[in-house]
Amino acid sequence: MNKERIILEKASEFFPHTETYLDASGINREFALNLREVMGDGGYIVTAIETDVEDGYEFESYSETNPFNALASVRSKIRRGLATKYLLLEEDRVALRFDEFQGRIGSGGVIIDGQFITFAELCEMLQVYEGFSITLSITNPSL
């Protein structure tokens, strides 16, 4: 048995399976935590997926050496991610609170504030900024 497999088995004995966090709206959100080993180069990835919500919040972190470093990093990402609400309901439609947002690309749309927004809805939200400049940054969720 290799060293990484032993570390992963030992870590999973103490590794939490779920955790709950309070978001900016005062709503408790539960996340299922998954620890997996990266084959080849090695390392560990921790994924936190919001439970009981389709296309909800999802966070991921990577550590080259220690699964608990990845866990600490994903916990930090969850807290930062839940601390700001980017969307508001305005005249029966969703609008941006600020001139920016963070989210995740999904199939057919994006997930912002744990809520699925179709690409058509996103385009409608962005049309109020006609004539403005835009910057788009696509990043790896593990890093």
UniProtKB/TrEMBL annotation:
It holds the Pfam family DUF7686. Residues 93-142 form the DUF7713 domain. Residues 14-83 form the DUF7686 domain. It comes from the Bacteria. InterPro entries: DUF7686, DUF7713. This is Uncharacterized protein. It comes from Nitrosomonas aestuarii. The lineage of its organism: Bacteria, Pseudomonadati, Pseudomonadota, Betaproteobacteria, Nitrosomonadales.
